[in-house]
Amino acid sequence: MNKQDIKNLIALASGSFPSIQKTDLVQIGKTWEEMFGKYEYQLVRDALRTVLIYAKFFPSVSEIQEAINSLRSEQTNPKPIITDCPNCRGNGYLTIRQDGEERYCRCPCKAGERLSGWPTAPGWALDTSDIPF
Domains in the chain, start-ordered, CATH in brackets? Predict the structure, then answer.
């Protein structure tokens, strides 16, 4: 992430807490850049949005980090929702081989809906005869 991404995240958070002082935002920006700069913007944004839904106070680094960890865990180990999909067996994702590489993609079934940031599986990789929608 770059500084502009950090500013965008701070703007998102401070919009929910209008009483926060601008001088505080400078230090928050420096801290967030150090703590979250290694992550992709979309991941931190999703984590921050998750925290803001229930936040009564301006989000702390630990709250955002906990949400990041939860999102990353969900992405790498999604829990099955359904078991009758012939493509993903309820995991929501497929592993395909394309251009000599193994890639992960989202199944179009109900279980795949929670992986909205993932690319959708190409049609040639799906058995569409019995997908539960």
Answer: 3-76 (1.10.8), 78-133 (no CATH)
